[in-house]
Design a protein that fits this description.
The chain has a seven-stranded mixed sheet with strand order 1-2-3-4-5-6-7. Strand 6, helix 6 (about 180-195) and strand 7 form a beta-alpha-beta unit. Helix 1 (about 55-60) packs across helix 2. The protein is an alpha/beta fold. It has one domain: TIM Barrel, CATH 3.20.20.70. It is built from six helices and seven strands. The structure holds iron/sulfur cluster (SF4). Iron/sulfur cluster binds near residues 23, 25, 78 and 108. The site of iron/sulfur cluster (SF4) has 10 residues, from loops.
Length: about 210
């Protein structure tokens, strides 16, 4: 593996696709803060020395035996929505080559703001699941935790979760277990009752 250019990597039975370093957030718990001392699950350096082209992403995925993985997960060491057009192209190529793995995207849910358009229809027929970081139960707490560089990120994220569910069979929303229990329960209410998504409390991954 070329140092600083890990496009695909295995974790937990899935194949992850590292598409970008770019992110419009600076979350307190982000793994990007933990990359210096090593020893985490991220044994590769996921900080890309440059963004892979869509052809390089496709080549890296197709060099793997996709039957070995439960899911193909588009993520990034940043926010994958920056690459939505290229990711859709890659998925279309996989389909054209007769490959139909279960496909998920992990996102902060601000892809429509990032791209300046409604990207939700792009998910139809391409993604089986979208996992969105809900993170906290109010915009104020969310902003303090995630430090979004865009205005209205919290509401935009929730609107995205609701809208993308029209195009994707499963939408999951997650929080990290470092927030207080009452906030975990308030987030469950937002996720399940307000948005109609599946809820998951994620364990904080230490370095
Ligand atoms: S949205 Fe994800 S990649 Fe971006 S800062 Fe937060 S945890 Fe890190």
């Amino acid at each position: 593996m070329e140092k600083g250019f890990t496009i695909t990597y295995e974790y937990g039975g899935n194949l992850y696709v590292n598409t970008t370093n770019r992110c419009d957030y600076n979350c307190e718990f982000c793994l990007r803060h933990n990359q210096s001392s090593g020893g985490s699950i991220y044994t590769h350096n996921l900080w890309l020395k440059r963004e892979p082209t869509r052809e390089e992403i496709l080549e890296s995925i197709e060099s793997r035996d996709l039957s070995q993985y439960g899911q193909l997960v588009f993520c990034g060491f940043g926010e994958p929505s920056y690459r939505i057009d290229d990711i859709c192209w890659v998925i279309d190529q996989l389909h054209a080559h007769g490959k139909r793995p279960f496909i998920r995207m992990d996102t902060n849910g601000t892809g429509c703001l990032i791209n300046g358009r409604d990207i939700c229809p792009d998910y139809e027929g391409r993604f089986d699941k979208v996992s969105i970081s809900l993170n906290d139960d109010t915009a104020e707490k969310y902003n303090a935790l995630c430090h979004p560089q865009v205005e209205g990120a919290y509401e935009a994220m929730k609107a995205f979760a609701k809208e993308v569910h029209k195009y994707v069979p499963e939408v999951m929303m997650t929080v990290v277990d470092t927030i207080p229990q009452e906030e975990i329960e308030a987030c469950r209410h937002i996720c399940e009752d307000e948005i109609g998504a599946t809820y998951r409390v994620r364990e904080y991954i230490k370095d």
